Amino acid sequence: MKTILKSILIILLFGLLTVITQIGGIVYVLSVLISRNWKKKLRFKTTLIFIGLYLFSTFLIVPFVAPIFGREKVKHAINISATNYMTVLLNRNYVKPELNKLLLNTAKNLEGTKIEIHYLDASFPFINKFPLLPHLSHNDGKKIDISLIYESKGIIKKGQKSVSGYGVFEGPNSNEFDQISKCIDNGYFQYDFPKYLTFGSINDDFVFSEKGTRKLITNILNNQNLGKLFIEPHLKRRMNLKDKRIRYHGCKAVRHDDHIHVQLK
Question: What is the model's pLDDT at position 136?
């Protein structure tokens, strides 16, 4: 019975780690096999082996294998960085080279403005159509989420209003069309699900920077290889954005007034 329970636990951990990191399940199975064959007695031996092997794989193996699948890590620059480093640690920061070019070109045009690109989830390093949950479409290296721009006392700030970068929304004002309520009232209960993924709120003094976010988006729109950009309709109208590539993502997705979704053609 004990052996059966251990096997079930291994299967569950394999599934969970695969869903979260793509490579974690395989690394865990290897860690279990190494632990069983390594006779040295050590407390938390399997866990320590897993952590070491996972970090080695994430930073020294995966980046060199990913290009075989047409993907590479998001390239950091002075004004390009991850909103939360867990995105990097969980291998959710891989894109096609064309998307890196879009980000780098946008960042170059933003130099001197204090506006920076802070990215959230992109795609996993391997295999098209491998789901990056909870996203519906981040499965081909062509998509990336970017944080909104915030300010405090009129000064652009680098941080976000949640630890994860998701889930603290810039909802519609009383005089703006409320797409969120319409979706939820029509039974799409998942629409504001990211509110459960904040991992805590921070920077309570920050407010949405309409001017800063608009400047970021207009510079993204200058890229010819941009296919679509998703943001909530009320923010599109508030910022007076009219480009036809700015689309509404539909009620089957989640709301986009906590981040910007960018994707290639």
Answer: 85
Sign of CA dihedral 165, 74, 231, 212: positive
Three-class secondary structure of residue 232 per DSSP: coil
- In whole angstroms, what is the distance from residue 243 CA to residue 77 CA? 27
Using an 8 Å Cβ cutoff, are 248 and 186 in contact? no
Residue 10 in contact with residue 35, Cβ under 8 Å? no
Q: Give the pLDDT confidence of 30-55 residue by residue, as tens digits.
A: 999 999 888 888 888 999 999 999 99
Phi and psi dihedrals of 216, rounded to 5?
Answer: -60, -50
150-152 vs 143-147, strand pairing mode: unpaired
What's the alpha-carbon Rg for the chain, to the nearest Å? Answer: 20
The answer for residues whose C-beta is within 8 angstroms of residue 113's C-beta and 6 or more apart is 156, 215
Structure-block tokens of residue 241: 């954005």
Q: Is the pLDDT of residue 2 over 80?
A: no
Identify whether the C-beta of residue 212 lies closer than 8 Å to the C-beta of residue 147: no
Concatenating the DSSP letter of every residue in 127-155 gives: -TT---TT-SS--SS-EEEEEPPEEETTE
**Alpha carbon distance 227, 264 (integer Å):** 4
Q: Are strands 80-82 and 117-119 parallel, antiparallel or unpaired?
A: parallel
Q: Which of 206, 239, 194, 198 has the alpha carbon at shortest distance from 220?
A: 239
Q: Are 152 and 194 in contact (CB under 8 A)?
A: no
Q: In Å, what is the CA distance from 120 to each residue of 172, 217, 258?
A: 23, 16, 11
How do residues 85-120 score in pLDDT, each as one tens digit? Answer: 999 999 999 999 999 999 999 999 999 899 999 999
Return d(Cα 73, Cα 81) in angstroms, integer.
11
Place of tokens 């989420």: 145
